[in-house]
Structure formats: C-alpha cells, structure tokens
Amino acid sequence: MRHWIEAARVRTLPLSVSGIIVGSMYALAYPTDNVLTPTEVFNWQLFGFAILTTLGLQILSNFANDYGDGIKGTDNEDRVGPKRAIQSGVISPAAMKRAMIITSVLTFISAVLLIYFAFGKDHIVYSLIFLVLGILAIASAIRYTVGNTAYGYHGYGDLFVFIFFGLVSTLGVNFLYSQQLDFELCLPAIAIGFLSVGVLNLNNMRDEESDRKSGKNTIVVKIGGAAAKKYHFFLVVSAMVLMIAFAILNNFQIDQYIFVVAYFPLTSHLITVYRNKNPKLLDPELKKLAISTFILSILLSLCLIFFLSDLVVNS
Questions:
Q1: Closest CA to 258 of 289, 309, 311, 297
Q2: Dist. CA 81–CA 71, nearest whole Å
Q3: How far, in Å, CA of 291 to CA of 14, rounded?
C-alpha cells in the first residue's frame, strides 16, 4: 500500500483540486439570476464528485507517467527526482497497467455521476459535451507518456495541464453549477492553469538532462534551462497579476486581499529558482509551488464565501 501511495504522488493532489475549489466557491458567491440564494446554486454532491473526478484524473496521470516513462527507460539512473515505482521495481509494469485501467474506470464513473448531479435528465447537450470532455481528459492523462505518440515527449504536456487543470477545472465546474460561463472567472482560471504548468515546468527543469538523453522533448529540453527559467517567471508572475486584476474587477475591499498572503511563499520560490544553479536542488520547490497554489485557492475562496456572497444576497 505504501508503494501505491507513493506512486499516486500525494504531493500533487492538492494542486489538482485548486481550480475545483475556486470554481465551486465562485458559484456559491455569485448565484445566477434564476436562483434566490447562494445555497440553491451550490450542490455538495456535485462538489464532492468534482473533487473525486479531478483526483482520479491526477492519480491516473501519475500512474500513467510512471508506467510510460518506466517502460521507455526514461526513468533511469540519470533521473534527478525521487525514484518511481516501476523504475525501482517495487511495482511491476503489469500491475501498474491494471491500476491505470481500474483508475480510469472509477474516474469515468465519478465523472458520469458528476454530470448527472449537475444536469439530471435535462440539458442532454450539456451532458454529452461534458461526457466527451471527461473521456478526453482520461485519454489525455494516459497519453501524456504512454504510447509511441505520447504528447509529453513532444512538448505538449504544458498545454494539457493548462487546459484541464486550469480552464476546464475552474470554468467547467462553475458551469456545472450555473449552466453559464462567467468570463471574469477566466482570470483565476488562467492563473491556476499557469501555476499548475509551473509545477510541471519545474519538474522538467529538474529532469532536463535525463529527458534530453532519453528523447523526451519537453518544452525545457526544446528551449533550454535559461529560457525555461524565464518561462517559469512568466507563469508565476502572470498568475499573481491575474489574481490581483480579478480582485480589482470585483471591487474587493482591503480585507478581501488576504489571498496575497500566498504571494510570500510564491515570491520566495521565485527567488530560489532565480538563484538556482543546480537543477537537482529544484525538487523541493515542486512541493512549495503546489502547496502555495492550493493555499492561494483556499484564501481566494474564503474571500468569495465570507464577503461577496453577503453582498450578492443583500443587493
């Protein structure tokens, strides 16, 4: 069991639900015009299955990454990060493949229940759209490193993370509650997407040399470590600016800017990355950035719940 928990990479799980939390709490704070109170738009069953589905996708992606890199030999003695399950031999490729199948099935079931609690027997078109999105998300999680045409080996992993753990996670879950798109929510959705990509970019910066030798052409391998560092700064700083812009557009009061507390560890992280000369030392920064993003989403959500919901209900 310990080996399976390690293979699931628990430290990545809080990051994966950040968009779900923000999108859900935004629905609670900004109920649509056709409901009377925030509690009528918010659904705890929907929230629970949204969390389960996203966690399933993240765990599936982690299992698939372990499997794909393991059987391709990308995870070898040159790899800087912690040893993976297949690499170390504690889990066989066959067992990991079975785990991927089981996780895919469970995630699909969770996604179907999520869609049902969102739309019921109504809105068939919406249900079909989200069902297709769910299937695409599961397929994309697997195809990141699995197969001869794995897109993670061609530099498209960043795009997958941005779309599914940023835009789809935040905007998609909010649509499940409200059946409408709120374009102001695009700002935190893009911000969370950028920060999620930042975690992947750190991982790729750490593994640049081993990935290059193994033919895994991540964006870092394509543009080089120096440019990847600039790219990383763009991702994190842009996310911080977008969150501030979201607060300004929504007329946050001074006490509602409590979410900037998360900017302190983010700034510390950027300083560490700027000063870094040895990619091996970047591994602890993955956890710091992931947890900082999760904290940012929690603090922003608290602002939405305890401040804005009262304003909407009383207006």
A1: 297
A2: 17
A3: 7
Neighbouring residues of 111: CB distance < 8 A, sequence distance ≥ 6: 49, 53, 130, 131, 134, 137, 138
189-226 tens-digit pLDDT: 999 999 999 999 998 898 888 888 878 888 999 999 89
Sign of the dihedral through C-alpha 242, 246, 140, 15: positive
Distances (CA, A) of 165 to 151, 161, 173, 202: 17, 5, 11, 16
Residue 240 is encoded by which pair of tokens?
Answer: 């911080």
Alpha-carbon distance 293 to 132, whole Å?
28
Cα four-point dihedral sign 81, 151, 8, 203? positive
Count the neighbouring beta carbons within 10 Å of the beta carbon of residue 245.
14
Distance of CA 162 to the CA centre of its chain: 8
Dump strand ranges (E) for 147-288: none
Parse the chain into domains and list their residue ranges.
2-314
Question: What is the rounded CA–CA span in Å between residue 286 and residue 198?
Answer: 9
Beta carbons of 200 and 158 less than 8 angstroms apart: yes
Q: Is the pLDDT of residue 259 over 90?
A: yes
76 vs 97: CA distance, rounded Å: 19
Residue type, position 48, single letter: G
